[in-house]
Q: What sequence folds into this?
């Protein structure tokens, strides 16, 4: 099921509120509470080639299409049915 515009707005507000304090673990927990049915994955940012949907603190947030057998990163919010939290190493 694709993320709704309301879900995306709530996710954007969360990322903005966390700002530079965002860590992959805390962002993942907050996203699970904010959107309980969300398909959520986590990895290292070095494992992702695509540009992030949003970035905050030590996290890049990518939209995922999990509607088919294989999960894929998408840049289209209309196709997004999950999120990938990619943690970046501290600078």
A:
């Amino acid at each position: 099921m694709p993320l709704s515009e309301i879900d995306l707005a709530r996710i954007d507000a969360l990322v903005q509120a966390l700002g530079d304090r965002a860590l992959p673990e805390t962002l993942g927990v907050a996203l699970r509470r904010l959107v309980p049915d969300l398909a959520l994955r986590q990895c290292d940012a070095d494992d992702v080639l695509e540009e992030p949907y949003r970035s905050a603190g030590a996290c890049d947030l990518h939209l995922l299409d999990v509607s088919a057998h294989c999960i894929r990163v998408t840049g289209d919010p209309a196709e997004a049915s999950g999120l990938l939290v990619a943690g970046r190493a501290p600078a």
